[in-house]
Each structure stands twice: as C-alpha cells, then as structure tokens.
Design a protein that fits this description.
Chain lengths: ~450, ~450
C-alpha cells in the first residue's frame, strides 16, 4: 500500500511521509486515491454545472421547486400581500418622504383632536408564522395604536418619535450608522439598547422599509472570494484578486452595485477553515463559482449579500455545512429567516439552497473514519428533533431522510473531518466528485 | 440654542431635526460645535503628523521609548538571546531542512544507543516571564527530554513525530492548513485537538520557527482599509479601494508582500462599529492613515499583520479602544503578547503603541454625558486592578494615571458613546482634535 502511495506522487493526500505506519491515516489516503480515480475530466463536470446554472437562471418563477410564490424576483413585494407585512428596500428619498408622510398624518391627527398616536404593527411571536407557500417566516398584519396620552405607551411613543427623527437625520447626511450608535445618541431617553433596537424594528415595519434602507446597519462578519466583480461604495472589487483573505462583505448592502459574474454556482460555506482551503486552492478557477462564508451563524449583512447575488445573478446556491443539527439550522436561517426579523424575511432569505454536504449519509458513503465522527450530545439530539418538526425541513423529503439518519446514528461530523483523507481532499476529491455526481438535495 | 444649531448647517451633529427639545442631545450637539471651532486647518494638523511619522521612522532603535532592546527590526532575533527562546519567521526551505536536521539527530541518537528522544522546550507558566528590557512576555530556555522509551512520554513522543511529519507534508505541498485540519488528519492518535495544538507549539519552539512558518494558520477576523497597498497571494490589494467593507486580513502572513503606503500613522481600532464609521467617512483621505481592527480580542493574523506593517513602514501606531479594563487588555495583547504564545512574542507583538483614546480622562475632558457612561462591575474593577499590577502598564506613568482615574471614578465608556455628540463626531471632531493636540500617551 505504501508503494501505491509513493507512486501517487505529489497529488496524493498528505500524510505520505509516514509510509512506515500501516495505520488509519494511510488507509484513508489510499481510499482518497481510489475516489480520485473516479473523477471525470473537469470539462465533463463543467458541462453539467452549466446546465444547472442555466436551469436556475430560467427558473423565475416557473420551475422554482414548490409554489410559484417562492419566486425570487426584485418586484415590489409590498403590493401582493394584505395578510402579512412585507418591507422592501427603498432609496433615501423614498424613506424620507415616508417619514414625512407619517409625521404629517400624526400632526393631522393632533389637529383633528384625535391626539398624538402611532399605529405600530405587532411583532409578538404569535404574529410570526411560517407560510409554506412562501417558504419563509412572515409577520402577520395586525396593528396596535401607540398613543402618547396613555401612561403605558407614552414613553414608547416618545422613543418612536425620536428614532424617526434620528433616522431622518442619518438619511439627510447620507451616512450609515450601527444600532449601537443610534442608542448612544440619546441614552437618557432610550435607557437600554434593547428599547431603541425594538423601536427601530417597529419603525422599519411602519415605514415598510428594510432596516438597511434606514441606513442602520449590522456589523459585518462575512467574506467572499471567487468569480465575482462588484462595486463597494464606488470601488470596483474583483473577487478573483482578493488573495486568500478574501473581501469583507460590506455592512451596507445599498452601497453595493455593478454585480457581474461568470460563475456557474454560489458555494456557501459554514466555516472559515473550509473557506480558507477553497480560497488558497483557488477552487473557483477550476470550477467557476463564488465562495462565501459568514463564519458560523449568518449575520444580516451576509444574508443580504447572498440574496442580492442570487436575485441578480440567478445562480444555484450549494451549501457546505457541518453534519450536525446546527449546520441545518444555519441553512434554515439563510433560507427561511430568523423569527426576530420575520417582517423582513423577503429581503433576507434566499430560498432554494441545495444541501451539498457534509450530509449525514456522506459519513458512510465517503467512509469518514469512526474516530473523526463525534457522538451527538443530548442537546444536539433535542435540536435535531426540533429541526425535524420545522416546516421548512418537512417540505423536503430527502432532508427529512438525512436528518433521520443523523438522529438514528447519533453521529455528527465537521467539514474539517474530511481532512482525515488529506489536507486538500475537500477541494481535490470531495467537492469535484459531489459536483460530478450532482449530489445535492 | 436651536438658532445656533440651524446656522451650523449640514456640518452640525445629527439630532438636529428635533429642535424643539432643549434636552441633553441638543446641548451635546452645541458642545460638539464649540469643539469643532477649535480645530485648526487640516494642513496644520498634517504637518505635526508628518513630524511624528518621520520621528517614528528614525526611531530604530535609538529613540524607541525605553530600552534599546525594544527595537523593532527584521534582524534575526535567534542570535541575540541565550536565556530565552525566540522563534523567527522562516521560509519553506529553512523549516524543511530544520525538520530534516532534527529527525537526523534523533536517528543518530538511536544508532548511538541513546534511544529515540526529542528535546522539547518547557512551556509551563513559570517559564513564561515578562522582560522589561524587551517589554514583552518571553519563554525562558529550559528543555526537557521526551523519550519514546518511557511510559509517561511515549505517547507524546509519537505525537511529536507525527506532527513533524504532517508539517513536513504541508510544507512540501506549499499549502496552509488550520490547527483543526491538522487534528483531523489523525484523530485516532491525537484524540483531542488540545493535544495536537500543544505539540504544534512544542514543534514551533523546537524548530525555532513561528507557527505561521509551519504553514499552520489561525482563522482571520480582522479587516483593513486606508492608505495601504499590499499583495495577498500575488493579488495586488489597494486598501483605498476596498469600499466600506474593507479587505479581510489574510490568515497566512507569509503570502503578504509588496507593502507600500503613504500613510502618516496606523489607526488601530477595537471595534468594527468605529471601523465602519472611519471607512465610510474615508477618514484616511483627510488624514492619511491605515485603519485596522480585529473586531474585539486580537487574533494572531491581525497581530502578525500589524507588526508586519509597523516593521516595514515604521509608522506610529495610535489606538482607539473602549475606556474600560478590556480596552487596555486588548492593547496589552497587541503590545506584549499573550502568555500562551510567549515563545513567539517577538513576531506577534508591536511595541510602542500610543493610547489615543477613549481614555478615562477623556470622559470629563470631552464631556461625555453621564448617561453614556456605565458603572464598572465588580469584575471590571478586579480586571482593572490586575492591569494596574501588570509590568507593561507600570512602565508608563501616564497609563497608570489613566487607569487609576478609571478605578477611582468607577466609570467606563465605549467608543460608541461619542455618538451622543452626533454620528460623525468621531471622525469630524474627536479624532481631528486628538491629532491636532497630539493627545496620545
């Protein structure tokens, strides 16, 4: 066996320098080599990827898996719904005039003797529901009055007025601020950042604008690399020339423009270790793609960016996450949104993400060694069972099957577990083979 | 007062749209305006910054504050020390031949009948000391044998051999891997990542190489923007054209080359909210600088990058951290290193960072409103007292004074607290004024 490994030359998996030990590691290397021989030439794999990409480009809205309503277009969603709240990206002028109209209506109400009051959408959890037709969590349309002349709401009405005025000031200057900045402009009134944050979400719903339209942004965490060109605040960014570090995903999505790409798919990666491997090996040059990661739990900026790419480029999105309930949970946040931001789910979610790997069935299929798998904890199993009850999982029979496999074997594994077959196994064998076999669900 | 504010026009601090309320916020805005009027023209501030930059460029090693040993040069530090261990960046060939020499000496030991054994530097905490002359934490030179023919060390000797062989394989391929990747290549042997991580540090000490020379990298967290051009894995990165998002700092510092800059200083920022403000306002165009942040606790990649910039560009480093014990702790990690990585402190630390703000004395000096200050918790006070006992703080009388002020007033404040004077107060008033007054310690 050590003979075979030597012959494999520099292309063989790492660990080759310890040819004396006929242990797990070298068996793994020879198995990796046998898989490698199954790989067809790249041209043949690329042909099938091209077919996938063009199918994805035409799937608007007809072929999009389930309902037509799942469509991912840039049309104004505010019009097509009366039962639930949909906010949309708006430009500075539009948001400013919405604020002006709102304040004017409040003024009219005062003049008419009806007093100073806001009408605010209710964002309680009972009001946040998953709509199977839309395949995302939405906020039902149900409003409550917030009068100033009422002991229980006087403070909240004041905070609402103050936040409206601050957002107005931010927009007038054309800058972006964080939630924390907003809080600190009037600590005396807001008292706690949770208060100003909550009212900011209220204001977003009241105006029918996304939070990023209000120019209040989240901090950035994500990075992107690959076959993508875009403008960040006017600067042209070529993501094939971003080295190994990649380009930090901008916090303010409205400053992103001029998106161009010759990629065939978007590869969404859970963790930065896998991202680094892909970036260093310039995987996107072999299989034209855009690679992005939020380094764990997806932040708002990365979710907005992914959706923007999907909407504009109409590329299929393939996901590489750990084979554990959290990997699936991360997918669910990208696809269906989080409950807290349900009013903005249309802008934050990217439906139709394909689960490429590492899937529970991959562990046996790709012979991930026993010692690289981890036993699921009680908490893991609890989360897994909760996921099984989620509507978005139930919609996809093959996802249910995978999750059941996971809960049955009680085993989990990280993407990094693939390193047991060699450091570059991920980019040289596993992913190419997955793409060749169109092995996503 | 509202009259004065209106006259101030669009340059006035935010919050101006609520002119009816004579509350804290508008008083703050008018105070900000009075400070703004103290600002000299930028040319005059730039002249003093130029003087600072050229002083910094010549301070090698003579004027570097305390001891000459604090010098920050790219000389080989391995030669000038016998009492403590210093590792250095080495290229692939050098590390490979060091591994070969090491393995050869082990083989000779076996042939000579002395058995299979490694000589490994002790990295226990009693061996990690702060050297005032060097102004950083170092690892004393004290070695222990790690023989294979001994029950207590047999396993560790095997792990050491395995890690050496894996590093050798990584170097031969010219790639970079994470600690997690390394662990997963032989889970059966390593059992726990803590074991392979610890031995990796041992190997780093044994070979006298930095961990990044071994091509085992940490994950990246930091971002950079401003007057800086460098090459990341051969791609030319112009950090003035990285939009608001900035460029992610590459995890593998040895792929960074061709550093060029016309900046006058490096602005080190604790948090990404402040970074975003500086990036969006393109602060570096008004005052030529390089702005970087690790988004909280500094990671190894950001520390390596900062040091690299300081070594090559010889620019002064000014730091903006929260006014709390953790802000100071973060500075200490950049300046003196963490105890765990003491053997590599020479490559990871950047001495002579100036504490620009937010300093405890700034709270009164810049009239940060009471409600934007937070009371220190018992834990904060404990950490503050510990910092006061740290050698690196004691060396600088003005730092001690600031820390004493903090502990006396029992108040802390975030950088974001400056937003109470307007969203752009940081970039338009506070920082320019600090630079004008050369108010750093």
């Amino acid at each position: 066996m050590s003979e075979r490994k030597r012959r494999a030359g520099p292309g063989a998996a790492a660990g080759g320098s310890t040819s004396k030990k006929p242990r797990g590691a070298s068996a793994a290397a020879s198995y990796a080599q046998s898989l490698r021989s199954k790989l067809r030439p790249d041209d043949s794999i690329l042909a099938s990827l091209r077919a996938l990409a063009s199918a994805s480009a035409q799937s608007k809205p007809a072929t999009a898996s389930s309902a037509g309503a799942k469509a991912l277009a840039e049309d104004d969603p505010a019009s097509d719904s009366s039962s639930y709240i949909v906010v949309a990206d708006q430009d500075i002028n539009s948001v400013t005039s919405r604020i002006n109209r709102l304040v004017l209506s409040v003024a009219r109400s005062i003049l008419a003797g009806r007093g100073f009051s806001f009408s605010v959408p209710s964002r309680t959890s009972t009001n946040q529901v998953y709509l199977p037709d839309l395949d995302r969590i939405v906020l039902l349309r149900r409003e409550a009055a917030r009068p100033f002349a009422n002991v229980t709401t006087a403070r909240k009405a004041t905070v609402t007025a103050r936040v409206l005025s601050l957002v107005h000031a931010v927009l007038r200057r054309g800058i972006h601020v964080t939630k924390r900045d907003l809080f600190y402009t009037d600590v005396k009134l807001f008292e706690d950042q949770a208060h100003s944050d909550a009212v900011l979400d209220d204001v977003s719903c009241m105006l029918g604008c996304t939070r990023s339209s209000l120019h209040v942004v989240a901090s950035e965490k994500g990075v992107v690399v690959g076959r993508l060109i875009f403008h960040d605040d006017g600067d042209r960014i070529d993501c094939t020339r971003m080295g190994v570090g990649g380009k930090a995903i901008p916090p303010n999505i409205d400053r992103v423009s001029g998106i161009e790409s010759d990629a065939l798919f978007i590869l969404l990666v859970e963790k930065d270790a896998a991202f680094m491997r892909l970036a260093e090996d310039r995987f996107y040059n072999r299989f034209p793609c855009i690679i992005l990661t939020a380094k764990g739990q997806p932040d708002v900026a990365t979710r907005l960016f992914l959706r923007r790419l999907k909407v504009e480029l109409k590329l299929p999105v393939l996901a590489m996450v750990d084979s554990d309930p959290y990997g699936l949970k991360i997918l669910s946040v990208y696809m269906c949104g989080s409950k807290n931001m349900s009013y903005d789910s249309a802008n934050l979610t990217t439906p139709d993400i394909k689960w490429l790997g590492v899937r529970p069935s991959d562990l046996d299929k790709y012979r991930v060694p026993e010692q690289c798998r981890l036993p699921m904890t009680d908490h893991d199993i609890k989360v897994g069972k909760e996921m099984l009850a989620e509507d978005f999982v139930k919609q996809n029979a093959s996802w249910v099957k995978e999750l059941e496999t996971m809960l049955q074997t009680k085993q989990k594994a990280e993407i990094q577990a693939l390193s047991s077959f060699g450091f570059q196994y991920l980019t040289e064998v596993y992913l190419p083979l997955k793409l060749q076999q169109e092995d996503w669900i």
